[in-house]
Amino acid sequence: MGYLSQPALKNLKKYSYKGVDESLVSHYLLTPYWNWFIKLFPLTIAPNTITLLGLCIVVFNVVTLLYYDPLYLTEKDGATGPPQWIYFTWAVGLFMYQSLDAVDGKQARRTGMAGPLGEMFDHGCDALNTTLEVVLASRALNLGRSWWTVASQIATLANFYLTTWEEYHTGILYLGPFSGPVEGILMIVTIYVITGIFGPTFWDKKLLTFTRLDRIPQVVQHVPNIGLNESFMVFGAFGLAFNIFSSYRNVIKATKSDGESSLKPLIYLLPFVVSATLQIFWLLSPSYHDSAIIHSPLFLPFLCAWGLQFAHQVGRMILSHITRSPFPLWHSMWLWSIVGVVDAQLPFLFDRPSLIQSTPKRTAVFIYLTLAVSLITYARFCALVIRDITEFLGIACFTVRKKDGEGVWRETRDIQQDGYVKRL
């Protein structure tokens, strides 16, 4: 008995990717580049290998952060931080990730490997990259250990969740005029370049002072003079609100055309709300201003554990989409998070000391254990799903091979449409 049921496996053969890209940047600037870039890859390279390569580049960027700033401290906290040239490597790495993420689908069509496995693998890597870029971008913006980084994590994950939720209900991946995979990534690349030139402290400059709008009394009276980095977070909040409106509008159209309720899909937003709420309450221990996790070296592993749990959550959503299965409302890692939250909040809830996280050392052990459990459960999910899909569809994950009509592994180019090997 595999991870996927037989009905779910059979539905894999009914899956077909549908996407809409309304980005002008994508159409007029990036697409010609992507069409040139894909020709650099031989047909012997599997599309999932290209996707994984992009994620590995981002992981390498995170490794450089850990090498130069293992405690995730900013300059205002007294740390020296990474040398400024490192931020240029982050910019190049993220741009290369975007490029590889864009051409893996083209490679899939070139090699005849397009299908639901590529959809799963692509979205899985994107989900992991989301948290990794929050970590890097928050460091480049000189936010570091702060609630602003937490807010950035929530907003970024919410945008990704909304896109997946929308695709589940509409069957179409919508990328609007301003989307995260295109303009959002390019904006972060620009942030890395600016940080590489001027340093992270550049983003601490006040918005009104930097733009010289503080000379206008009417502006000063109504607009707070917050930092450029904090202004970027506010901009992200407006972007999230716009994406919520756009996604729900598309879902309403899809549900009405199918004669279904347009309110029921809102229930499927609750898993993200529950997950994010648990993480926030965990971080609130012992108080908002004195978080034991945010203001310690544990903040980075906590964010990574959160990101792995999120990737697992949206991975199950995507799997439900491509197999036409019920939406996954429950996630088993919530039980672990609930234990962490209740234990951390015991002093507030029952005026009793924490049982597990009673000392900084025990808290560190529990957070790193949370990271390990999150990694193992997500890795197990990926391994089981890849195994089931490849065995049922007779395709390889990281090589350009398929099973022929007799069940023998062959190069894709050697198999005819009827499933049998080409005869000379």
From TrEMBL:
Keyword Iron found: no
A Pfam family reported for this protein in Swiss-Prot or TrEMBL: CDP-OH_P_transf
Keywords: Membrane, Transferase, Transmembrane, Transmembrane helix
Primary location: membrane
Compartment annotation: Endomembrane system
Ranges that cross the membrane: 49-68, 184-203, 223-245, 266-285, 291-308, 329-350, 365-386
Molecular function (Gene Ontology), one example: diacylglycerol cholinephosphotransferase activity
Cofactors (names): Mg(2+)
GO CC, alphabetical: endomembrane system; membrane
Transferase keyword on record: yes
Catalytic function, reaction form: CDP-N,N-dimethylethanolamine + a 1,2-diacyl-sn-glycerol = a 1,2-diacyl-sn-glycero-3-phospho-N,N-dimethylethanolamine + CMP + H(+)
Protein EC: 2.7.8.2
Assigned protein family: Belongs to the CDP-alcohol phosphatidyltransferase class-I family.
Name recorded for this polypeptide: diacylglycerol cholinephosphotransferase
Species the sequence originates in: Suillus subaureus
UniProt lineage: Eukaryota, Fungi, Dikarya, Basidiomycota, Agaricomycotina
